[in-house]
Design brief:
The complex is a heterodimer of chains A (about 200) and B (about 400).
Chain A lengths: L3 H6 L8 E5 L5 H10 L2 E6 L2 H9 L4 E3 L14 E7 L8 H11 E9 L4 H10 L23 H10 L3 E8 L7 H5 L1 H4 L2 E7 L5
Parallel strand pairs in A: 1-2, 1-4, 2-3, 4-5
Antiparallel strand pairs in A: 5-7, 6-7
Chain B lengths: L15 E5 L3 E2 L5 E2 L2 E8 L9 E5 L26 E2 L4 E2 L4 E5 L14 E2 L4 E2 L9 H14 L7 E5 L1 H12 L6 E5 L7 H15 L17 H15 L2 H7 L2 H7 L24 H16 L2 H13 L10 H4 L6 E7 L7 H13 L4 E6 L13 H22 L1
Parallel strand pairs in B: 5-8, 5-11, 6-7, 11-12, 12-13, 13-14
Antiparallel strand pairs in B: 1-4, 2-3, 4-8, 9-10
Helix pairs in contact in B: 1-2, 3-4, 3-8, 4-7
Chain lengths: ~200, ~400
């Protein structure tokens, strides 16, 4: 089954375009985009098992730690740079988002929205860091070191002069609804941003 | 007796010699009027001749990459860990072509061959060969074999450099380039080690300015020393600790505690004899090598390494060299390789990305240093295997 955020993302990818997927996991999104949009895709990943799965499915994958930067990529060398469910695990998420938009004409960022009411309720009622099916780690062993909320990311974009082309939030079943649109930071479980630095858009 | 070979071995193989009469123009401006190339092949060439893989060998290897040359032979080819039925370079799927490069000493024309013009050994008169000269000779071999395009060209170390040259000079003649434990060009440190090796050979009293065969001798000490130095650069510190620290591990169950300082006879000699296992090992490796390898070939091979730099034709910008490349690339490196460390492979990847090429890159955690590329390291084998399976699937899909 396709991850909820991925189905929405693919609508923003032009057929035949060049796509860089940062933290591409097992390559399922690139695999889908290869098959359905014939993109020229490259994924970056550090987990050896995930890299093997990418190679098994014939995806171009480069073993690279995102925390070491992306200086090996040329400016404007990709149409779209993806960062799905990885932002919160980066040591310098703000720097990487800027790098994304140096390398790609457009960027797509998805992350678990820590401002979701469930997280808020968990923290408020239990007084402990939220642990759920969606965020299964304890505070001390989580790879997710930079959680943020929809409002936080909006603020980052404003500060960095990043234009938000589309912002959407979904729940884990990737259902969007009118009330989620009305209160994205409260009700959205996954935030999905289509962003650019180009002024002409 | 062939049924006594392991089931995943290509079994008994017989090399074939191809003679070429058309002169080969060389990078140096000289040319070789005629030459032989000795070749082994494994697996069956399909009717469309689309499933061929070329293996490019490293400094001291040859055409004998897999299987056994005689029934009573116990030592398989140098890349038997990777080539065979069901192995990473799967001979059930591919027709694998492996040759001894020109200038070699295993059956292809080289310094130890007779120069037809003089009737004497070529010796030091054999022209300096570069990686691009080898690749041109490999193109001619390919034409002779009736292969229009390689499904993949694969090589490690100096072999990986030939792979890069293929992708640059003959983009229309390969679909995939697999470059393992290589570098875009040698560093000063790499060249320095090569020069020590060369100097040890040329300063041997039996070298006779390269005409040792005419004197019915060979520079044994020089070759030994060259190999000993080379061998140190192929291993990692951790690999040496593990390799020469075994006896203590049996005693204390701590394999690297003595830093690989195992003694040969259990006590120090307080003389200048061989005290440590590592010394004895290097002497053994050097000695064995000196008996089987031609000194002039060693000089040539190290020069080919030193001269390799495809960016020279492109104002030093390797990415420009790759601009016309039309294949997909797979680059692999090993964590403890200090001869061509992962950073060197990443340089290649960066230039490929700059040129907008399709590339995959993995960095394999391995203790064995540069030598790791010859060994059956699980992640390495799995990755190479997966990549080549997709290569095969592509050519099957293309055919249907």
């Amino acid at each position: 089954m396709m991850r909820p955020d991925l189905e929405i993302i693919q609508q923003w990818i032009d057929p035949g375009s060049k796509v860089l997927d940062l933290g591409c996991g097992d390559g399922s999104l690139l695999n889908y985009l290869n098959a359905n949009k014939e993109v020229r895709g490259i994924g970056l990943e550090i987990d050896a098992d995930n890299i093997q799965r990418c190679l098994d499915s014939g995806i171009n994958v480069i073993e690279q730690n995102l925390d070491n930067g992306l200086s090996n990529f040329q400016s404007g060398s990709f149409d779209t740079v993806l960062l799905t469910q990885t932002l919160q695990a980066l040591s310098k998420p703000d720097v990487l988002v800027e790098e994304m938009l140096r390398i790609g004409k457009k960027g797509i960022v998805t992350f678990p929205n820590f401002g979701n009411w469930k997280s808020r309720l968990y923290l408020a009622s239990k007084g402990r860091m939220p642990v759920s099916k969606f965020m299964p780690h304890s505070w001390y062993n989580t790879p997710n070191i930079h959680f943020c909320t929809v409002k936080d990311f909006d603020a980052l974009c404003k500060e960095k002069n990043i234009k938000i082309l589309t912002r959407t939030v979904v729940d884990l079943e990737h259902q969007g609804s009118w009330y989620m649109k009305a209160w994205p930071n409260l009700l959205g479980e996954i935030a999905i941003y289509h962003i650019t630095k180009e002024t002409a858009c | 007796m062939s049924d006594s070979f392991p089931t995943d071995s290509v079994g008994l193989v017989e090399p074939q010699v191809y003679h070429f009469d058309e002169p080969l123009p060389l990078r140096s401006g000289k040319s070789i009027p005629a030459y032989d190339l000795i070749v082994e092949t494994y697996g069956t060439l399909n009717p469309d001749k689309t499933n061929a893989i070329l293996i490019c060998h490293a400094l001291s290897s040859d055409h004998h990459a897999a299987g056994f040359n005689s029934a009573d032979n116990t030592k398989p080819g140098w890349w038997d860990a990777c080539i065979g039925p069901g192995k990473a370079i799967d001979t059930n799927l591919f027709h694998v072509v492996s040759l001894n490069n020109l200038g070699g000493c295993s059956g292809s024309t080289g310094p130890a061959s007779i120069n037809p013009l003089t009737g004497k050994y070529y010796g030091p008169d054999f022209p300096v060969i570069t990686v691009r000269d080898w690749v041109l000779s490999q193109v001619r071999l390919m034409d002779r074999l009736g292969i229009a395009k390689w499904a993949a060209v694969v090589g490690g170390s100096l072999g990986g450099m030939q792979v890069l040259r293929w992708s640059i000079s003959y983009p229309e003649r390969l679909d995939h380039a697999v470059c393992i434990a290589a570098a875009p060009k040698l560093s000063a440190q790499n060249i320095a080690f090569n020069e020590v090796a060369r100097h040890s050979i040329t300063s041997d009293v039996n070298f006779h300015k390269g005409r040792y065969l005419e004197h019915d001798t060979y520079p044994k000490q020089g070759l030994m020393l060259a190999r000993m130095v080379g061998h140190i650069t192929y291993l990692s510190d951790s690999a040496m600790r593990a390799k020469f620290g075994k006896s203590l591990s049996d005693l204390e169950q701590n394999s690297t505690e003595n830093f690989g300082r195992d003694l040969r006879s259990g006590k120090l000699s307080f003389g200048f004899n061989i005290d440590f296992q590592v010394e004895s090992y290097l002497h053994y490796q050097g000695e064995r090598f000196s008996e089987n390898f031609d000194a002039n070939t060693y000089l040539l091979m190290t020069k080919a390494l030193d001269y390799f730099d495809p960016s020279v034709d492109y104002e030093g910008d390797l990415s420009k060299a790759f601009e016309k490349s039309d294949c997909k690339f797979f680059v692999l490196s090993f964590s403890t390789d200090w001869r061509f460390p992962p950073e060197r492979s990443r340089e290649i990847v960066t230039d490929l990305l700059k040129a907008g090429k399709q590339v995959s890159y993995i960095e394999i955690e391995a203790d064995q240093g540069h030598d790791a590329f010859l060994l059956a390291i699980p992640r390495y084998i799995d990755a190479l295997s997966a990549y080549l399976k997709k290569v095969h699937k592509e050519l099957v899909d293309d055919a249907s």
